[in-house]
Amino acid sequence: SQGDTTVLGASGGVPPYQFAIGSGLGTLNTSTGDFTAPGVSGPTIVEVRDSAGNQAFYFITTSAPFGGSTE
Questions:
Q1: What DSSP designation does 57 have?
Q2: Is the dihedral of CA 21, 8, 15, 11 positive or negative?
Q3: What confidence score (pLDDT) does residue 67 get?
Q4: How many degrees, rounded to 5, is the angle at CA 17 between CA 59 and CA 37?
Q5: DSSP state of 19
Q6: Edge-to-edge strand ranges of the sheet holding 34-36
Q7: Type and span of the H or E element at 23
Q8: Using the 8-state DSSP alphabet, how is residue 39 labeled?
Q9: Strand pairing partners for 69?
Q10: Would strands 34-36 and 42-50 be described as parallel, antiparallel, or unpaired?
Q11: How many other CB atoms are there within 10 angstroms of residue 44's CB atom?
Q12: What is the CB neighbour count within 10 angstroms for residue 26?
């Protein structure tokens, strides 16, 4: 959901890992993989690369929060 933060992990390969937003929006700590969803709905692709140059991808879809009424 918009504004939520999650940690994207990596395993295997040759540490350390670097994270990068390949397309889409959001903020990302390139060393830890902490991803914060943008304020708009839509897709984001995050690339993970190990020190040997191997890569993998996260495909993330951010959705808008529920906008219903509490009345």
A1: E
A2: negative
A3: 57
A4: 35
A5: E
A6: 5-7, 34-36, 27-28
A7: strand 17-23
A8: S
A9: none
A10: unpaired
A11: 19
A12: 20
Amino acid, res. 54: N
Residue that the structure tokens 């994207």 belong to: 8
CB 35 within 8 A of CB 28: yes
Mean pLDDT for 39-44 is 89
Token pair of 14, please?
């040759």
Q: Which residues, other chains included, contact 28 with Cβ-Cβ below 8 Å and sequence gap of 6+?
A: 19, 20, 21, 34, 35, 36, 46
- The predicted model gives 17-46 an average pLDDT of 93
Kindly state the tokens that stand for 71: 């009345």
Q: Which amino acid is at 26?
A: G
**pTM for the predicted model, two decimal places:** 0.82
Q: Quote the tokens at residue 63.
A: 């959705």
